[in-house]
Specification:
With about 170 residues, the protein is α/β, with parallel strands linked by helices. The chain is built from nine helices and eight strands. The longest helix is centred in the first third of the chain and has 11 residues.
């Protein structure tokens, strides 16, 4: 937590944080005390929707839900446990309790540099009407253009930046 606090205080861009956040107290520390801009909750969407509801009531759009999916169904606990819950159904449940933004990651694509799952991402956008941020498999500028065409609210680019396949300045233009 000290490292996260240091990062949030040291830079002028908004910090978004996710991973292992499962209590209101942690959410409060990150958002109120440490200067984190947004918190991503994932496993809690399946296991503790009341936590998401409480957080959304208090922090509004500073709470984002991450839905990691494989073959259209949500996976939790760092992708280890697959559920039988369709990703779009989970997103709609989150929408009903006040969430407006979902980070949708196709875990079969993440880190593979093989292009995003545009069909599943577009399906999420059309079925939910929510702000869907695409994640997983983005490896070239054309992927970002295609994500924009399907109406995604944004994209997360990871490995492609680390490897130099995409330059941040070029991605920001798209």
């Amino acid at each position: 937590e000290e490292i996260i606090q240091g990062i949030a205080k040291a830079i002028s861009i908004p910090v978004q944080l996710g991973g292992g956040i499962r209590t209101v107290e942690k959410i409060q520390r990150f958002l109120d005390d440490y200067g984190v801009h947004r918190v991503i909750l994932g496993t809690a969407a399946v296991e503790d929707p009341k936590l998401i509801e409480k957080a959304a009531e208090r922090y509004g759009n500073r709470i984002v839900v991450g839905i990691d999916a494989k073959q259209g169904n949500a996976a939790i606990k760092g992708w280890v446990q697959k559920t039988n819950i369709p990703a779009a159904d989970l997103a709609l449940k989150m929408k009903a309790i006040g969430i407006d933004t979902i980070i949708y990651t196709d875990i079969a694509k993440d880190g593979m540099m093989s292009g995003p799952n545009l069909n599943e991402t577009e399906d999420m956008i059309l079925k939910t009407g929510m702000n869907i941020i695409a994640s997983g498999g983005i490896s070239r500028l054309e992927d970002l253009q295609n994500i924009r065409k399907i109406g995604a609210a944004g994209a997360i680019v990871g490995k492609a930046l680390y490897t130099g396949a995409i330059q941040l300045s070029e991605a920001l233009k798209v």
